[in-house]
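Model it.
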Amino acid sequence: PSPPPPPSPPPPPYPSGYFVDDFSRMNGCETYGWTGASQCSTCGVGIGTLLGGYGDRSMSSVTKTYDELPSHGMIHLEIRVAQIDYWPEDWNVRASVYVDDVRVFVSDVLTHVGLTTSVCGESYYGDTVRTFRVSSVHVASKAKVQVSIPRPYDGYWGLSYASLSTGLAPPPPPAPPPAPPGYYFDDFSGAGDCEDVHDWTGATSCAMCGNLGRMLGGPGHTAATAKNFTDLPAHDVLMVELSLVKIGSWEGYYGDQFVVYVDDVVAYESGWWFQDAQPYVYECANSAGEQAHDVRFNVSHTADFALVRIVSGSGRSYGVRRASLAAMDAHAPVTDLVSMIEDSFEGASCDARNWTG
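Modeled.
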């Protein structure tokens, strides 16, 4: 008889800075350094073997620390999670990915609605694999990666696949053109660790809130946030624009609102927020939800300085994503419009000029 064929050579090693943990193909139960699961499990076609999975009622997050990363400026993650059984849409369950304890990704709501193929667990609900791809600025030689999903009652999830690769940081964007005199713009949504708070007081750090981005303040920030704008050019109107975020439980009691002062005079008051107001999003890991609130107002003003102060009337949590102030002459001619169309109805004839109603 012919001799048996030689064994297949082992697969080539992954290149430096590339790590793959594929649970769907493993035999037995290998954690590959991930912690937080109490078991491995196996589903049917299309899902395979999982870390965690059906029957693991204790798993709410899994974590792994990658050591001895080569020199890099970015990390790229691909995470595949199996969603099994009952995931009601109104529970607003989302997956979060953290790198070194900073949340860098929040998924859409995870739900069984619309799924028809059951390959694991109970046959009443469909199962599927969700894929999340995340890139994050990172330079340290270690990276702690955590995948967190608050499991709904009678729903389960498992880790099917995880990969991490390192890469170069993207080139910095070109410097913005200088602001015109009397215009000030502070953007915290890309402020990194908030090392520059642009002279705002009351908050000394930024928070990352998923798709809402980074903001000055954030969860737990309740103090007034203020900035003194100085050396303003001659003007008679200030235009103030703010991008604010309501965070957590605002119950609608008296004062559950944003108030903005200019030189200690109330210049803007929002309406009151209620716990069940819509539309809320859930980006800051807070069951009461968050809501973005963009504000623009004008206020008569002539002094060469202006103190802008933002408060949440009854000490609720909030953040500031962006803030701008423009000192303007209210009577100056408009010169920077691309075009201006004027319809005058003062003449003897009455040409509607395409106006309706």
